[in-house]
Amino acid sequence: MRTAALEARGVEVAIGGKEILRGADLTLEAGQLVAVVGPNGAGKSTLVRTVAGIQRKSGGAIRWMGKDVRELRGRRLARIRAFVPQSARVPEGVTVSEAVGIGRSVHIGPLQRPTRRDRDAIDAAIERAGVTQFTERKLTTLSGGELQRVQIAVALAQEAPVLMADEPTSHLDLGATVSVARLLRGLADEGLAVLLVAHDLALAAAVADTVVVMSEGRSVAAAPPGRALTRERLAEVWGVEASLQASRGGRTALHVGWLDQRVRQP
Amino acid sequence: MLVRRSLVVAVAAAATVAAAAASLALGAVDVPLADVIDALTGSAGEGPFKQIVLELRLPRMVEAAAVGAALGIAGALLQGALANPLASPDVIGVTGGAGFGAVLILLVFPGSIALLPAGALAFGLLAAAFVFAIAWTGPNAGGVGRLILAGIAVGALFGAGTTAILTAYPDRVQSALFFIAGGLSSDGWRELEVVWPYFAGGFLVAACLMRPLDRLALGDDVAASLGARPRLIRLVAGIGAALLAAAAAAIAGLLGFLGLVVPHVVRLAGGTSSHTFVIPVSALVGSALLMAGDTLARTVKAPIELPVGPFMVALGVPLFLLLLRRAV
Which of A82, A87, A91 sits opposite B217 (nearest CB)? Predict the structure, then answer.
């Protein structure tokens, strides 16, 4: 069996004395899209930020390509995984191509200039993320969906085999959500290991190979969508009477008993 | 894009050269440009022109250029590192501290006036050190909001100290006014000999931070995910800005406004926020503005010298407002 891109076991995190993660597992493999779902405050973002090396862990093991995350500081880690944060700053006066160039900086030494290879990688990232038509526009003039695709282009310019995105679709309309979802699924099909944090269970079920369910700081399930998001688990973790329906061709629907009083409170 | 930036660099460089020439040629006595060049190249015979240019105006021009460049760069470093368009040397307490140090020497120890640059420098750096110590300890150490709030609080503390001294020695307030308004003097190389290492340190920090600062543009999370260390970059940028602003205050008094406006002028004119452009061009524009302002301050009511602060504001604000109106 080949080494997984990411292997995280029993990850624990405490911030300011408060336990946020109490034992979460996560595995990523090339060509796979993993969606991390869970209620607000379940520790989804903390888990992703911790395995990405941005948040310090207080326990457990995180291995990237078989190496301990603590040995992979800085640019070495940045060449293994790219990370799209939940809300990146949108600076004034910065164009799309300049922003994507920032992503490429992990391949350029402190005293080096960008080479032809770097410029090609930036162009390729811009094209793959579908933002070619506004490379010279300022970030402040873009819509939410356009910005999110630019953020993904910044990550793609790193040319890392793993792409992690923390709730990339949370503030987007349906059209923009579908476009980002297609992009991420396409990247996984091209061989990247993709991790997506999502609130939208129907979206997660539609695009993911594996769904990881987080609840109160623990990962309580990691399985294909149909097995991870059962009626029982939706009731237990989210406290709602709901069921997920999936049909062929990647169409999914979440049937929610919005006004149903029969839900057992956990 | 590239054309526009090259044009801005060319205009800034031309303005710097023109301001330097004017600063050497104009004054209570006008020296013809040919004599200025002769004096600089060493081909001038002994005479008043040579003495005026080499002993009075050249040191003063170099001081103006260094102070202008230092304040321009200090502002660019802070605005970039704190991701805040309002950042200037005032924000990290340097201006308040340097003002206190200078007023302390001028009013309480007027016998030790030679210590003025050292006093302004020392208290400017002390105030900044105080701000960094508060901002970089405890939870959320190194956060932007904390640094700015600590800076404003420490600045207010030193400002209150300055006011207290001014009210305690009302008969000597006049001597402090020139420092507070900001102005250069024709004291030869004496002041530069004290502060040049601080300028050098600050310029070196700025040169090393141009690319790291660009990586902060998309926020701390993106920077951290790219292997940069946002808080360390912010601390080093803050230290560099403190060195530059304190050294500038030691020579020319409180001209903090320059540090606020110059980087904005450069960004608006160049249409980019890239620090490899903003930092060096801010240095050029800062020195051009201060050399021009100082020349005006010396010549408008010659032989009386006015403080340069108000002239610089008068030059800088219209340019700034014009660009601001056209900004997207």
Answer: A91
B2 CB within 8 Å of a chain A CB: no
* Dihedral (CA of B263, B267, B269, B270) sign: positive
Using a CB–CB cutoff of 8 Å, tell me whether B215 touches chain A.
yes
Give the integer Cα–Cα distance in Å for A92 and A111: 26
- Which residues are paired to A244 by β-bridges? A254
Q: Calculate the CA B231 to chain-centre distance.
A: 24
Nearest Cα residue in chain A from B224: A54
What residues does A252 pair with on adjacent strands? A246
Q: Give the H/E segment covering residue A253.
A: strand A251-256
At residue A261, the pLDDT reads 63
What residues contact residue B169 under an 8 Å CB cut-off, 6+ apart? Answer: B107, B108
Q: How far apart are CA A116 and CA A120, in angstroms?
A: 6
Q: Rounded to an integer, what distance in angstroms lies between the CA atom of residue B160 and that of residue B153?
A: 11
Please list every residue in chain B whose beta carbon sits closer than 8 Å to the beta carbon of residue A49: 221
Specify the DSSP class assigned to residue A138.
Answer: B
Model pTM score: 0.88
Q: How many alpha carbons fall within 13 Å on the CB side of residue B263?
A: 30
B120-162 tens-digit pLDDT: 999 999 999 999 999 888 777 777 888 889 999 999 999 999 9
Here the ipTM equals 0.89
Closest CA to B280 of B76, B31, B63: B76
- Report the alpha-carbon distance of residue B243 to residue B202 in Å, rounded: 6
Do β-strands A162-166 and A81-84 pair in parallel, antiparallel, or remain unpaired?
A: parallel
Chain B residues with beta carbon closer than 8 angstroms to that of A103: 226
Residue of chain B with shortest Cα separation from A166: B221
Give the chain A residue whose CA is nearest to the CA of B212: A110
Residue A71 in contact with residue A53, Cβ under 8 Å?
no
The count of other CB atoms within 10 Å of the CB of residue B113 is 11
The tens digit of pLDDT for each residue in A86-109 reads: 888 888 888 999 999 999 999 988
Chain A hits for B226, Cβ within 8 Å: 75, 78, 102-103, 105-106, 158
- The segments of chain A whose pLDDT lies below 50 read none
| Rounded Cα–Cα distance for residues B282 and B110 (Å) | 36
Task: Give SS3 for A147.
Answer: helix
Residue with tokens 């608006």: B268
Residue B203 CB contacts under 8 Å (≥ 6 apart), including other chains: B69, B70, B73, B244
First to last CA, chain A: 39
Q: CA of B321: how far to CAs of A74, A223, B14, in Å?
A: 41, 59, 22
* CB-based burial label for B139 (10 Å; 0-12, 13-18, 19+): exposed
Q: Which of B139, B221, B267 sits opposite A93 (nearest CB)?
A: B267
Residue holding tokens 């779902």?
Answer: A37
Contacts of A266 (CB under 8 A, 6+ apart): A236, A237, A239
ω into residue B303 within 30 of 0, thus cis?
yes
Given a contact cutoff of 8 angstroms between Cβ atoms, the answer to whether B155 and B98 are in contact is no
Size of interface A-B (CB pairs under 8 A): 79
